[in-house]
Amino acid sequence: MACASFTKLNAPSSQWIGQPSFAQRPGSSTRLTSRRVSLPIRAGASKDELVQTAKSIASPGRGILAIDESNATCGKRLASIGLDNTETNRQAYRQLLLTTPGLGDYISGAILFEETLYQATTDGKKFVDCLRDEKIVPGIKVDKGLVPLPGSNNESWCQGLDGLASRSAEYYKQGARFAKWRTVVSIPCGPSALAVKEAAWGLARYAAISQDNGLVPIVEPEILLDGDHPIERTLEVAEKVWSEVFYYLAQNNVIFEGILLKPSMVTPGAEHKEKASPDTIAKYTLTMLKRRVPPAVPGIMFLSGGQSEVEATLNLNAMNQSPNPWHVSFSYARALQNTVLKTWQGRPENIEAAQKALLVRAKANSLAQLGKYSAEGESEEAKKGMFVKGYTY
After folding, report:
1. Mean pLDDT by 10 residues, the chain (393 residues)
2. Lowest CB count within 10 Å: 124, 142, 201, 391, which one?
3. Could you give the 3-state DSSP secondary structure of residue 239?
């Protein structure tokens, strides 16, 4: 039933294009009075800045460090090493990450949670200034999380558009220059046409609002790894989702040169009986992107989605073995932080070792962005998968 509804995905869009927004009265003329329409240019005077920010983040050999976990999710990470979920402990962990010497050699942007954007080091230096000193662009998570979508197949929609313009303006004043909005699509749940359309429309409205306030929007419709479906099914869904996303981005006059994408890699479901090789994942993922993503988009910054640290890096490396129309890089959270957290253990004496662990992972993915990575010498810990069924951020 869900698949049947899914095949009708583009019907409402195609029916809407070019149609008058009112009902035709019986016997009335079908001729419409022509009039001059002025279309607004999104972002106004900020257009050049948006384009420059996007290009800066999509720079060779660099990618994004995602540390925008909600307080609840960060608390789960801290609990895994025996720490309480307090603001002091969250600040200490994020200080460890954001003050790592030399991080800017491999990282071009860092996505922060709202709490972190306004925090400082124990010495009083703002985190945004720590990033700027390393030539890393500060970013901010702006969505308000997932809630059930009524009328769907037990699917979700992402909230946060209310008040987004004013919040974005404040984030810009605080130093943020790009934004992130994560919504999800579940293959086991269909996905329904309603859920896909809601995800695409929400992303497009968020992107337009972000650009109006000087923030480069990261567009992220995450196709969850949950399920036992083959890679071909993931490709089919990904093409449908990105088709809808770009349709609504265009309808909202979003400047493609001033956005970044954060897609899932095209892989089999996490519970599928056969695992795909990095070359196969690269082939299917790049096929999808070339069919759906205009070359005007400066950067594709992949999410790791529960892959192991090594898996995520190997797959990225495979996608950079030949030139692409866009900068193909990473925006990883767990795939950059897992070893770091376990090395730190909340102990001050382990900070330097933990920062070195972060640089190891950041450098590995930098090499993968350049197509020069080798997994030789990687630890067993880095090879462990991190998939969590029904994962929430």
Report:
1. 37 34 40 44 68 98 96 94 97 98 98 98 98 98 96 95 97 97 94 97 98 98 93 97 98 98 94 93 98 98 89 96 97 94 97 97 97 80 54 53
2. 124
3. helix
Rg (CA), the chain: 21
Q: What is the identity of the amino acid at 148?
A: P
- The pLDDT assigned to 20 comes to 35
Evaluate whether 221 touches 207 at the Cβ level (below 8 Å). no
CA 169 to chain centre: 21
Burial of 252 (0-12, 13-18, 19+ CB in 10 A): middle
Q: What's the confidence (pLDDT) of residue 392?
A: 57
| Predicted pLDDT of residue 99 | 98
180 is catalytic: no
How many C-beta atoms surround the C-beta of residue 211 within 10 A?
25
pLDDT of residue 380: 63
Evaluate whether 100 touches 337 at the Cβ level (below 8 Å).
no
Q: What's the pLDDT at 75?
A: 94
d(CA 79, CA 58): 34
pLDDT score of 382: 60
Give the C-alpha distances (Å, rounded to integers) separating 256 from 12, 50, 77, 177, 250: 24, 10, 35, 16, 8
Catalytic residue among 69, 134, 198, 220: 220
Active-site annotation holds for 311: no
Contact 303, 331 (CB under 8 A): yes
Structure tokens at 61: 């050999």
DSSP string spanning 45-78? Answer: GGHHHHHHHHHHHT-TT-EEEEE---HHHHHHHH
Q: Which of 141, 197, 240, 262 is catalytic?
A: 262
For residue 42, give every residue at least 6 positions away whose Cβ sits within 8 Å of its Cβ, in sequence order, or none: 208, 211, 212, 252, 253, 254, 255
> Taken in order 79, 82, 86, 89, is the CA torsion positive or negative?
negative
